[in-house]
Amino acid sequence: MTSKESYSLWAQPKGRMGEQLKAEIAHLAERHGANPFPPHVTVLGDIEKPRAEMEALMEQLAARTKKYRINFTDVTRGSIFYQCVYLLVAKDPGTMAAAQAAREVFGRTTPPYMPHLSLLYSDMEDGERLKVVDYEIGRLYGENSSYDTLMVENGYDVDSISLWYTPTDDTGLRSWCLVGEYELQG
What we know:
CATH architecture: Alpha-Beta Complex
CATH superfamily: Cyclic phosphodiesterase
Strand content: 25-35%
Oligomer: single chain
Largest sheet: 4 strands, antiparallel
Order of helices and strands: EHEHEEHEHEEE
InterPro entries: Cyclic-nucl_3Pdiesterase, Cyclic_Pdiesterase
Number of strands: 8
Number of domains: 1
Pfam family, one: CPDase
GO molecular function: 2',3'-cyclic-nucleotide 3'-phosphodiesterase activity
Helix content: 25-40%
Protein name: Cyclic phosphodiesterase
Strand order of the largest sheet: 2-1-7-8
CATH class: Alpha Beta
């Protein structure tokens, strides 16, 4: 099966927070037989345009988007593969403005934006998802946490948006790759 050309725009954590979330995603992937992936909040996903057009539109988006902060509000679960277990992100003005700017630049209308940072991609049953949520609350915020797993911060600053090649039919994530990173305005 051939993957369709599809891209996503990500706000990725850097530094210590990025490393911690990368390790947590890898831990959960190993624990549940899933594939690890880079930590990110999707600003806009599943965009089907040629790569050259994507890169030109990314320049436009970066020029009109101000730096902002992502703040986590909860560990929760969804009902689809790409939203199995995640950190819910506050709908703060900067987060929502970046998402709206992306939709305008790329000419997309989408369902209401629900910013989140996935911790696990899986098709597991809802009862299992709930167990993972409880486990993660304990590891990241609760009495079961250690200095290795306790969240170093409850969010991160976004100073760039990354363009990733992410064919959604590749649930093994093998073809996913970084295309470029675009610095945001002041």
